[in-house]
């Protein structure tokens, strides 16, 4: 167990600016996410299109994140992140205008979702590998946990606010507030100050050689590729549930737009709780056991939720989904970040992001198509069952993961 204090990484000015900016910006992002799902469902009343919207948003992660990792190792990460957030602000404002002028249709929503996902494909590897440049190795675990806390605090607060806004003054305001929220992280990035040697962008190999180096490192490290597989299973079978929460809110639980915000908020509250526990616990031993238990818990809670018609049981299960999900992903993230060399961090983290988020579009499309034929509850129940089976299979085939 290390001696890092719960808020140790906040003593670094750059990370402190980044963390506060992230909380504000991500709150807007989660408001956008909730409003987008509700907008698609209003326009189509189709679970298939909800799955397609999720695919449009996350498929660029699968397509472009590895290229984003190469870029992160070749250029200053701060400027990549800054440029990305300026583009995201513009895209959110375009959607705001389309909704306000009643010119919106489902295909425009899908197109904007795809463009937002493309920007994230280049921003996420840079952001994840940028953390160590702000805090150093000694505070990395704490910074990852606190960054995860910010993400999930926003995930808890954003959809809840969005639910009340959508139920009272209209969902277009959610997109507008999201566009404004990007000013917080843009300001934080501009105000950061680094010594020239602190911002690492030393890789000058050719793009193909850089890519091969990253792949070779992953394939020659059993712990790294096993974690990738475990995270990919959760992403493919487990993450698509978010796209179908509008169906649960409107059709199954009959709680409307406000209920949708609460459903997403409960998952966010659980994730925030899990992240806060990680931040205060410090560096735990036997991280592999934490990953395995969290993966099984996530899948089981999701399975119960998928079949629930009780509002309060659904809220409770989503809370457990949030707690266990963030414990698994954040622990996996910390294992990989501490083991990878600095010069490969962007590429390896882009591969991790591809599995963490990039499998979700395939899962969204698969579960959405299945939901069209057999119903949302049966489709999500099938996905959760396969998530549980896949997680147990990885533990059974690679028991060495428990010793990490």
Report on this structure:
The structure is a single chain. The protein has 404 residues and is mainly alpha-helical. It has one domain (8-192, 204-403): Growth Hormone, Chain: A. Helices cover 80% and strands 0% of the residues. It has 15 helices and no strands. Helix 4 runs antiparallel to helix 13 (345-356) and helix 12 (311-339) packs antiparallel against helix 13. The longest helix has 32 residues, at 13-44. The radius of gyration is 20 Å and the shape is globular. The mean pLDDT is 86.
Query: What is the helix tally?
Result: 15
Helix content: over 70%
- The assigned structural class equals mainly alpha
End-to-end span in angstroms? 14 Å
- Total domain count: 1
What's the order of the H and E elements?
HHHHHHHHHHHHHHH
> Any idea what the CATH superfamily is called?
MFS general substrate transporter like domains
The count of strands amounts to: 0
Give me the CATH architecture, please: Up-down Bundle
Radius of gyration: 20 Å
Q: Uncertain runs with pLDDT below 50, 5 residues or more?
A: none
Task: Kindly provide the name of the CATH class.
Answer: Mainly Alpha
Strand content: under 5%
Shape: globular
**What does the main sheet amount to?**
none
The name CATH uses for the topology is: Growth Hormone, Chain: A
Tell me, rounded to a whole number, the average pLDDT.
Answer: 86
